[in-house]
């Protein structure tokens, strides 16, 4: 099963596909070690998509939407 990770940064949203991190209950220290080293991170995670924010105001609105749960509700509605 594919594991996608959504990362929000000041510049926009990044969607990553993670390889080898999909086991339930996997050792937290092993996962943390895989993503803390840039060289190992590149082998475990692949950038799938990037959506930059249009402006500082757009970034603020997106941040607020995430914190209020609007982003999740809107995104999950697409998949239901």
From TrEMBL:
<dbReference type="Pfam" id="PF08156">
    <property type="entry name" value="NOP5NT"/>
</dbReference>
<dbReference type="InterPro" id="IPR045056">
    <property type="entry name" value="Nop56/Nop58"/>
</dbReference>
<dbReference type="GO" id="GO:0032040">
    <property type="term" value="C:small-subunit processome"/>
</dbReference>
<protein>
    <submittedName>
        <fullName>Nucleolar protein 56-like</fullName>
    </submittedName>
</protein>
<dbReference type="GO" id="GO:0031428">
    <property type="term" value="C:box C/D methylation guide snoRNP complex"/>
</dbReference>
<dbReference type="GO" id="GO:0030515">
    <property type="term" value="F:snoRNA binding"/>
</dbReference>
<feature type="domain" description="Nucleolar protein 58/56 N-terminal">
    <location>
        <begin position="4"/>
        <end position="69"/>
    </location>
</feature>
<dbReference type="InterPro" id="IPR012974">
    <property type="entry name" value="NOP58/56_N"/>
</dbReference>
């Amino acid at each position: 099963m594919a594991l996608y990770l959504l990362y929000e940064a000041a510049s926009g949203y990044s969607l990553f596909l993670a390889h080898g991190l999909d086991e339930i209950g996997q050792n937290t220290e092993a996962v943390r070690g895989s993503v803390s080293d840039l060289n190992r991170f590149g082998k475990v995670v692949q950038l799938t998509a990037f959506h930059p924010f249009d402006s500082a105001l757009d970034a603020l609105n997106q941040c607020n939407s995430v914190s209020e749960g609007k982003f999740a509700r809107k995104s999950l509605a697409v998949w239901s």
